[in-house]
Amino acid sequence: MSQKISSALAHPNIAFIKYWGNANPSLRLPSNGSISMNLEGLETVTSLSSSTQQDTHTLTINDVVQESDKSSRIAEYLEKIRTLYPFEGFLTIRSRNNFPISAGIASSASAFAALALALNDFLALGLSEPEISALARLGSGSASRSIPGGYVQWEPGNDHQSSFAASIASPTHWQLFDIILAVTLEEKKISSTRGHQHADTSPYQSVRVHDTPRRLNICRQAIIDKDFEKLAWIIEQDSDMMHAVMLTSDPPIVYWQPASLSIMQTVRELRKNGVACAYTLDAGPNVHIICPPSSKDAVLDFFSEYPGIQEIYIAKTGGAAHIIPS
Ligand code: PMV
């Protein structure tokens, strides 16, 4: 009998309204709701199989067997899944990424989304999209948003079942680009998992959390109305608010680098001069420039020779995670 293999593909996502801080860290129930866009062009493909010969789960990323932090995080995740949906034995996980890991492009989002979807298939769990989104959330909060397609909103919920993400609009509703200017390709020194734990040490976090419904409403409406000016204003404000919390945490977390700040200022100047574009930064120094198709070439031309940029990645509004043939 041939061995069963399940494979799934998921895109990372870029948050327009950020998730930062957990109300329940072990369930990864967020302190606030968030909105993101999936990123087509960037992807994680994960395959699952099992063997009776092994006594641990094994993880391979881009053909390299992982023996440290990443494999223990996955093992911990799988043991959590085992308590919810009992299964026998140990799994072999093979993952491929076509973009750098842990550099402010949400690789853990696409990784846990692909894994959750592959698990649903491999273990024949028969879960619905909201249930798979909740399953992905247990590995990495933002992974819940990489399960549905297009523009996605994650409601915090108050228990495992009620905390999942759902699509607000499809990729065809509004095609936007995310031009990612990588100012470093190194893995970030402070993981978002650790960062979330410090969020409440900032006096600004409660203000940020309290204000979230306002930002979510503006962002959601801007997406529905395809109003780029409104979207630009709110995503920059939201990104700055999250980084203000990070900068004022104890100990402070400084993800920005001089090049990040210089790019942010330049994006605002470009917009003033009529080029529709806006910046947003996750937990890393790399700058995501969101723009409509009409200004993509102008943004790319402008930043192609810009000092301090190591690499440029281009993604556009992407679809849902899906099962692929193994
Ligand atoms: O899902 P995590 O634990 O990697 O946290 C993601 C945090 C941010 O990327 C900074 C914001 C977000 O909403 O994606």
Task: Describe what this molecule looks like in 3D.
There is one protein chain. With 326 residues, the protein is α+β, with helices and mostly antiparallel strands. The protein is globular. It is 35% helix and 24% strand. The longest helix is centred in the middle third of the chain and has 21 residues, at 205-225. It folds into 2 domains: 6-173, Ribosomal Protein S5, domain 2 (2-Layer Sandwich); 177-317, GHMP kinase, C-terminal domain (Alpha-Beta Plaits, 2-Layer Sandwich), CATH 3.30.70. The chain has helices at 69-84, 107-122, 129-137, 192-198, 205-225, 228-247, 258-272, 293-303; strands at 6-10, 13-17, 22-24, 29-30, 34-40, 44-51, 58-61, 64-65, 90-97, 151-154, 165-169, 177-182, 278-280, 287-291, 311-317, 322-324. The strands form 3 sheets. Strands 2, 5, 10, 11, 12, 13, 14 and 15 form an 8-stranded antiparallel β-sheet that branches. Helix 2 crosses helix 3 (129-137) and helix 5 (205-225) packs antiparallel against helix 6 (228-247). Residues 15, 18-20, 34, 106, 108-109, 140-142, 192-193, 196, 282-283 line the site of (3R)-3-hydroxy-3-methyl-5-(phosphonooxy)pentanoic acid (PMV).
Kindly report the average pLDDT value: 94
* Overall geometry: globular
Largest sheet: 8 strands, antiparallel
> Which percent range describes the beta-strand content?
15-25%
| C-alpha termini separation | 16 Å
In angstroms, what is the radius of gyration?
Answer: 19 Å
Task: Tell me roughly what share of residues is in helical segments.
Answer: 25-40%
- Secondary-structure element order, N to C: EEEEEEEEHEHHEEEHHHHEEHEE
Structural class by secondary-structure content = alpha+beta
Put simply, the count of helices is 8
Tell how many strands the DSSP assignment holds: 16
- CATH topology heading of the largest domain: Ribosomal Protein S5, domain 2
Please give the domain count: 2
CATH top level assignment of the largest domain: Alpha Beta
